[in-house]
Amino acid sequence: MAPAAPQTPTPETTPLGHQLFTRIRLATPSDIPHIHKLIHQMAVFERLTHLFSATESSLSATLFSPTVQPFHSFTILLLEASPTLFPVSTFDSNPFFKPLTEVVNLRLPFEDPERDTFKSMDDVTVVGYVMFFPNYSTFLGKPGFYVENLYVRECYRRMGFGKILFSAVAKEAVKMKYGRVDWVVLDWNVNALRFYEDMGAEIVEEYKFFRLTGKALQASGHAH
Question: Catalytic residue numbers?
């Protein structure tokens, strides 16, 4: 997960003449091309492109199958930005999630060099995303959320957007009476570690993260 390097524009609590309207909404199958590009950008940032093999087809088949119900299975929230108010849309009547909107006030005018690449509709650009799904704590006797990815595009970092995305997950966990939210951060990503610690998160040092994949997974799956 990757909040990172400082950028010149920063948000303020009082209007300074450069407003950016933001919206968090549930992703839909039509967002797959943008989601795929965001995941690839995150793999580049985390120096893990050698592990990246997802395709638009594989994402579509697994994230948006008929059995996937938001918040009870794989869920992706997209963060979008616009220089103008968001128009009324079908997202506003989504039965699973009402979009969250917020106005960010910037010190300086802001330009997105990839605006056309990540354009989702007129004057609306995809900024980042968070992908999560339920897990369970036997010690708490309650479900929780595991955040697999949280990513904000480089030109939008240090503007409060990572916190906006993460808060949306936490808000849903509270609403559903879940017990906790878990995630993993690469040990070299000092900015991300500081970001989450500033939010009140604690680092759980006594656990080691294990993974079974590839040939080892296949071998274990066929073991007697």
Answer: 196
